[in-house]
Amino acid sequence: MTQPPILIIGGGIVGLTLAQSLQKSHIPYLLFERDTSSSHPHHGWGLTIHWALQSFESCLPSQIFARLQGIQVDPQQALNDTGRFLFLDLATAEPKYVIPPSKRLRIHRRKLRELLTEGISINWNKNLRAITQSDGSIVAHFEDGSTAKGALLIGADGSSSQTRRLLFAGSLDPDASKLNQLPVSFMGVTVRLSPSQAQILRDIDPLLFQGSHPETGVYLWYSTLSTPEGNGSAGKGSDEFYEGQLMMSWLVKTAYDGVPSTSGERVAKMKEMSHGFEERLRNAIANIPDDSEVLEIKLKDWPPPKWDNMSGQLTLVGDAAHAMTMYRGEAFNHGIMDAAQFSKRIAEAYKGAGEYDRDALREAVDTYEEEMRGRTHSAVLLNRQACLDAHDIKRLGPDSPLISRRVRVTKPGQSAG
Fold it and tell me: Where do the FAD-binding domain residues begin and end (predicted)?
């Protein structure tokens, strides 16, 4: 009997990692993505892989994992990376804390998604409309009228997950799927920097730093996104450039504290809020071109509750399962851990060329969900507190989740400690 596939909804990084891991274990899958292609305007920022690095390796073919080194934002710096993470007093640019270092890769998000698509079959332009069960199978219904049957449907479709909404739609509390809005405004921009402009910021830290202002509470994040060697401009004289990310956030206390509606207004607000910054930091904001595209990010989270997994045929991974803020840099790492833990358990239910063990698959889903909730429910809340702490440097102490050591994982398949 042909083994029924695993249906994955969402072709982002976690969905692709899960697909790579299932394919590595010769488990049939179908991957559906609502985007029309792999190019997406919001996939150009960076992310850090740290405590989940070993688990990421367990999910990927060795030749793909080896290529992660080449898509780091600065492969040369990575050779001697200290792993340190500075939190600055933005009024002086002096470190308030040095967050404990860890082995890490700082990866260009768009390049990572492109790498993870290699060898993976993706069904593009598929918007999930409904989920039903029929003859022992789970059925995904898409807006274009097509359907797909499988043994299990996994929602990997991000923090605004349609799968999550459908999962809770028939429950006693359909609003339980809604994200929690945090009282914080956040916006960011990718900037092109001359080598001299980039060096000023890289002298503070070559890869990334963060901090807040003691009087205004405004938070700033900077990270290198590409070097001339990585973006192809090396050796081109005055055309040589770096790319960086500049992000700012602040507590919402009045109507004036919202994010402006246009990019031009957002640039102006970033410059206004940086007036009290140390000169190098203030100049970095002042040099943002007025016509830059500035993106707003809605800061929301969702600690995962228990849900009806339809007898082990429907579940969630990644941001769909545990949306959290980025202030501890953990969201992606937890998503990778989901993929590593879950795919291992799914593999145990698919036994060679014979029929899969339905009871074992149901047990795999239940076991995964219990482990995932235990690992991520507290992580969501710690990231929420870190977000709030980031805007009050005067009260920021060494025990804050913003500063304390991140989650550690000893081996793939074991829970975080």
Answer: 5-167, 310-376
